[in-house]
Design a protein that fits this description.
By secondary structure, the protein is mainly β. It folds into 4 domains: 168 residues, Jelly Rolls, CATH 2.60.120; 99 residues, Sandwich (Immunoglobulin-like); 196 residues, Immunoglobulins (Immunoglobulin-like, Sandwich); 88 residues, Immunoglobulin-like. Strand 22, helix 2 and strand 23 form a beta-alpha-beta unit. Helix 2 packs across helix 4.
């Protein structure tokens, strides 16, 4: 009957000129390919339950195309605050889409209260609204999804309850009772007579040291009665401010600005904001907290990880854009292209799949900046998205610095020493890991529309979990370069990642051949000699030399910075390292002539 009805609509549209009828069709095409850009909402149950309104039965039984606009009208059983839209799309094709939220206007969507653009991903798409929208009656979620017979398709169940609508132009809507579109509203649906709520607080994360700012909070009278309440802000143990609000009507949202606060360099503390309402019946939504970090050390490099494979249709867009960005930013960006999933991809390694699963990556290309900013899909113009993410991350300072030295320890083998230096107060809750990824770039290889592979991950050391540490670490890793790789195009991404949030807080790009002889480049000639002895028990350094004419003793840190320099006046000189060097690390002692040519060198590790 349904197909006959569709045929009738088509014939009617042909017979009656001047009548334009939008008709939607069911599709028998279901994409179950692993590639393109498949991003499944990993735990839909976390978005479902009492906080979600939906009319579909959750069984993906039909897929629809033929219209550009798709909507569902919601009738909440009580006032609600909507924060997220969930939309299920099949054969997504990385289509450019949008979702809008509206009050009901006589049975049709009213003027949009907010519209958010998104790129369609296979399966559930979770789209957060910037604002939280409060409704006491019917409201709509509508989505602009440019469907076609080749996809994307809007998913639905087997039969409808009359809540779903479609439109050809976004203004004239047709009710559809044959299915319930998979469009859901996520929000807060528990309301009380007296309920003060903290909606959001700012700033969060990194703030500029020695620069004043005013903490702010968005609060709401979430109760059904008008009320008067206060809002309190605490930062660590040194700051507290209270703002008393006057009578706030039910459902009204207000912005609170607190007194100025100036963090010192290296400051780290938790900022907590909470409402105080006498007789509050729901205290669970009173409080929000964010950590603040006032670090001064600059970001050495942004970490970019791309999850890709060689038969991915849209991955060349990402690869070209990443190579362009790397060419423009140089060592300020370190890149790792993780080839995943495809058994025919010669660049796939097991560690890439492990890292992909850890991030929750569901499709390719997926590009992640510093572990926290994700861009899914590939298209012409994706470079601008990458550039924006890079610019956003590069200006964020870090509590740590990464310093390196290296030397050749055999044919095509690099010994890399990494010193992570703490410059700020690191929260004790952080789970820091030091990680290494060895890549090769500019590899001749024909794939899709391209003839070159860039930044392919060759090795992950020592493991995908990295090396755990608390605030500082000195680590040595040996990297073997396979004979089939071009050592001139091999790089190492050295990065520090907070395991819980997945944020990369510092990173550095290392070109292998630049570090194969860093000691000889710094000191002119490499020696391991008995003329310089380190007593690790007494923390002393002894220099013995028969001829003291025109010789100097120099001590450098791992980054080549001078720590100590003195002319040798005795045939035997003993130096107390604890008095000279302020922190743990790798150091080099050098005896050099007055022309700076090294005569003897000793590498040592100081652990105070």
């Amino acid at each position: 009957k349904f197909y006959l009805l569709l045929a009738f609509f088509l014939v009617a549209g042909l017979l009656f000129s001047g009548t334009v009828e939008t008709v939607i069709f069911p599709s028998s095409t279901v994409s179950n390919a692993k590639g393109i850009t498949l991003y499944q909402l990993k735990s839909l149950s976390s978005r479902a339950g009492n906080d979600t309104i939906y009319y579909d039965d959750g069984i993906d039984a039909s897929h629809w195309y033929g219209a550009d606009y798709w909507g569902v009208k919601f009738t909440p059983v009580q006032p609600c605050s909507v924060k997220t839209a969930l939309i299920h799309i099949t054969t997504a094709n990385s289509a450019n889409c949008s979702v809008s939220i509206h009050s009901d206007n006589g049975g049709s969507p009213g003027t949009a209260d907010e519209t958010v653009n998104f790129t369609a991903q296979e399966g559930w798409n979770a789209i957060d609204f910037i604002s939280i929208h409060y409704y006491t009656g019917d409201f709509w979620l509508t989505s602009n999804i440019p469907t076609s017979s080749a996809g994307p398709f809007v998913s639905g169940d087997a039969d409808g309850v009359g809540r779903s609508y479609y439109s050809g132009d976004g203004s004239s809507w047709t009710q559809f009772t044959s299915t319930d579109f998979f469009i859901r509203a996520v929000g807060d649906y528990d309301h009380y007579n007296h309920d003060a709520k903290t909606v959001s607080i700012a700033p969060a994360g990194y703030v500029q040291p020695a620069v004043s700012f005013n903490p702010t909070a968005i609060v709401m009278n979430n109760g059904l009665q008008d009320d008067t309440f206060s809002v309190i802000c605490n930062i660590g143990t040194s700051y507290c401010d209270t703002v008393n609000l006057g009578n706030i009507a039910s459902g009204v949202v207000d912005t609170v600005t607190f007194a100025a606060f100036t963090p010192d360099s290296g400051y780290a503390a938790e900022m907590t904001v909470y409402t105080t309402l006498q007789g509050d019946q729901n205290t669970a939504n009173d409080t929000l907290s964010e950590w603040l970090y006032a670090y001064w050390y600059p970001k050495q490099a942004v970490m970019l990880q791309d999850f890709t494979y060689t038969t991915c249709q849209y991955c060349p867009y990402a690869a070209r854009a990443i190579d362009q960005l790397k060419g423009e930013t140089g060592d300020s960006l370190t890149v790792a292209e993780h080839h995943v999933w495809s058994t025919s991809d010669p660049f796939r390694i097991a560690e890439n799949d492990v890292i992909s699963d850890w991030y929750g990556v569901g499709g390719a290309p997926t590009v992640i900046f510093d572990g926290v900013e994700t861009i899914i899909g590939g298209w012409n113009g994706v470079y601008s998205e990458y550039r924006t993410s890079f610019d956003n991350r590069k200006v964020i300072p870090s509590p740590v610095e990464i310093a390196n030295s290296g030397s050749s320890v055999g044919a095509d083998q690099l010994q890399l020493i990494t010193d992570v230096i703490n410059h700020g107060n690191i929260p004790t809750s952080w789970d820091l890991r030091l990680k290494y990824i060895l890549t090769e770039t500019d590899i001749p290889y024909s794939w899709e529309t391209e003839d070159t592979i860039y930044w392919a991950v060759r090795k992950v050391q020592p493991s995908t979990d990295g090396i755990s540490f608390t605030s500082e670490i000195v680590d040595t890793q040996n990297f073997s370069i396979d004979a089939s790789w071009d050592i001139n195009n091999c790089y190492i991404s050295v990065y520090v990642q907070e395991q819980n949030s997945k944020e990369v807080i510092q990173a550095k790009s290392i070109r292998v051949i630049d570090y194969m002889g860093i000691v000889s480049k710094t000191f002119d000639k490499k020696f391991e000699t008995g003329n310089i002895e380190v007593n690790y028990f007494t923390k002393t350094l002894k220099v013995s030399i028969a001829n003291i004419n025109n010789y100097e003793l120099n001590i450098y840190d791992i980054g080549g910075r001078s720590i100590y320099s003195s002319t040798l006046k005795d045939k035997e000189t003993v130096i107390k390292l604890n008095n000279l060097i302020g922190r743990n690390g790798v150091y080099f002692a050098q005896i050099a002539n007055n022309e700076g040519k090294a005569w003897a060198i000793k590498k040592f590790v100081l652990l105070k």
